[in-house]
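Case study 2.
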Amino acid sequence: MKHAGKFARRAQTLGLKGTLLAGLLCAAGLVHAESSVTLYGLIDTGIDYVNNVTTPGIKGGHSMVQMASGIPIGSNWGLRGSESLGNGLSAIFNLQSGFNVDNGAFSNPKSMFSRNAYVGLSSDQYGTLTFGRQWDPIVDVVEGFSLNGNYGGWYFSHPNDMDNTDNGFSVPNDVKYVSPSIHGLKFEAHYSFGGQAGQFSNDSAYGGSIAYENGPFKAGVAYLRVNNPQTAVVGYQSGGGYVNSVYGNALAQARSQQIIAGGASYQFGPFRLLGDASSVKFQRGSNGQNLNFQNYELSGIYSLTPTLNFGAGYTYTAGQDHGTGEHPDYQQFNLIVHYDLSKRTGVYLMSAFQRALGSAQYAQLAGFNPSSTNKQVVVRMGLTHTF
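Prediction:
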C-alpha cells in the first residue's frame, strides 16, 4: 500500500546503492560510469488494538489485538535505475514489490512487483514518459495533501480507501507522461490499455492532473476513471479478505469507478496545513444506479523538533445511493505522533476513530471487518525502517 513527506518517498530518497548488484553487473559489462542501480525499501510493523470487530458467523463484535505490517505505508523493496543517454536524456526503470514483514509473504501472491514495474525515458527539457504498472494521478498529486499521505497510511484513509488516496492499487499496462515544471506548474497524463480483443474500453483506465508549487504553497487536482474496476485493478477494494460494509458489492458491479480529487497545503514555519476533497462515482454499482461519495478532509502536521512530529486530521464522507435512496455518511478523527530515532528509523503511536452516520449502520476502519455498532476505534504502536 503511495509521497511528499511520506515514508515511501523518504525511502527512495535515502535508498542505498546496490553495491553488490552493481558490482556484478559491472563485471558483466552492463554498467558504466553514466548508469546506476539503487536498492531501496521500507519495513514497517506494529501492534494494533481495535474494538468491535465482527467475525462472519459469530454474533456481535469483539476487540482484537494483532501484529500488522505496512500500515503507514506498505512494506516494500525495489530496484531503481537510470542510464544517461546524453543531451539531458536518460533511460529509467523502477521495480517495486510489496510484502508482509510479519510472515514474509508477498502482498499480492499473483504479482511479484505489484506496486510498480515500469521503464521509460526522462528528459530535463521535455519531461518523462514511462510504460508499465504505475501509480495513477490521484496518488501522484492528491495523496500528499491528505494526512494518510504523510503519516498514518491505511487506517487514516477515506473509508476503505474508496478514492485511492492511499494508493490501494496501482494501474497496469499504463502509459504515463509527466511534464517538466513550467513556472511551478506540472502536468500529468495516463492511459492504461485493457487488452481485450474487440472490447477496447474494457478494463482500460485513463486520467490526468495539474499541480502547482510556489514556495510554501502547493496545490493540485486529478482525475481517474477505471473501467470494470473489479478486474482492471487489484488492491484493497477488490483483493478480498474483508467484508466491505461501506460500498459492498458496488465495485464488482460497477461499469466504472470515477474519481476527481484536489487538495492544497501551506507551510507556516513548523506547521503544515493540508486540505483535500474527492468525489467518487461507482457507475451502475447499486441496482443498476450510481453510488456516489464525497470526502472532505482537513489536517495538520506540527514539527515540535526536527525529529518529533504530531499529526491530526478530520474527514467527513457523504454518500448517496441512487439504487436504494439511502445516504450513508461517515466521520473520522485521526491522531499520530512520530519520533525519528535516526535518519532511517522511526517509532510512532497512532489512533483512528470512525463513526457511521445517516443510513450507514456500521463503522469500518480500513483493514478490519465492520464494527458491530456505528463506532470503531484502533490504536497502533509501530516501528518503521527505511533502507
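The chain has one domain: 7-386.
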